[in-house]
Automatic annotation (TrEMBL):
Name of the protein: Uncharacterized protein
This protein's UniProt keywords: Membrane, Transmembrane, Transmembrane helix
Record keyword Transmembrane helix present: yes
Superkingdom of this protein's organism: Bacteria
The organism of origin for this protein: Leptospira bourretii
Length: 182
């Protein structure tokens, strides 16, 4: 029994010793991988046309603002007032559409991605308009509409949705012009 515990102790010490010697190699490998990823993204960014860069930024902003809470309301517990922020009930739809648009159109160009983009943007626009007109059904269901305030991320999401739509159109038009010259 004691020899078993003693041998396990020595095995643990040996493992820790080898692990400590492995840390610098691991740090070097992660540094090299991170540097390679950022250099590849930088090279990719430099080869994009101007409208495509702006379009990429708007797609990223759309993804960012779809994740943030859009609404806030005040709730009072005895003498303490708290501000609560919440996202829409259909938040997963907005996040999924924004995420797929960001990856499909930011990193991959194909004929069907254009159709996907405009369909996804139209779905987002329709859900935002329906949610604005009937918030109890599409955005929230346990708060009175009078008690709720629209936050800045909601308006920024709408702006990024509109900006992505416009610059997506301009990017596709410019790409078609460049391909028409070839």
């Amino acid at each position: 029994m004691t020899s078993s515990l003693l041998s396990k102790f020595f095995l643990i010490v040996q493992f820790l010793k080898e692990s400590v010697f492995f840390v610098p190699d691991l740090i070097f490998a992660w540094w090299h991988l991170t540097k390679k990823i950022f250099l590849t993204l930088y090279s990719y960014w430099n080869h994009k046309i101007f409208f495509d860069k702006i379009f990429f930024i708007f797609l990223f902003l759309q993804l960012l603002f779809s994740v943030l809470p859009w609404f806030s309301y005040q709730i009072r517990f005895f003498e303490i007032t708290e501000s609560i922020s919440l996202g829409p009930k259909l938040n997963s739809v907005f996040i999924l559409l924004a995420l797929l648009n960001f990856f499909f159109l930011g990193f991959w160009k194909s004929s069907w991605t254009r159709i996907w983009f405009f369909a996804g943007q139209m779905i987002s626009i329709v859900f935002v308009i329906w949610g604005y007109l009937d918030p109890k059904r599409y955005f929230y269901d346990f708060v009175k509409p009078e008690e709720l305030g629209l936050g800045l991320p909601f308006y920024l999401f709408l702006g990024s949705l509109f900006g992505a739509f416009v610059f997506g159109y301009l990017t596709f038009k410019r790409e078609d012009e460049l391909l028409g010259r070839i």
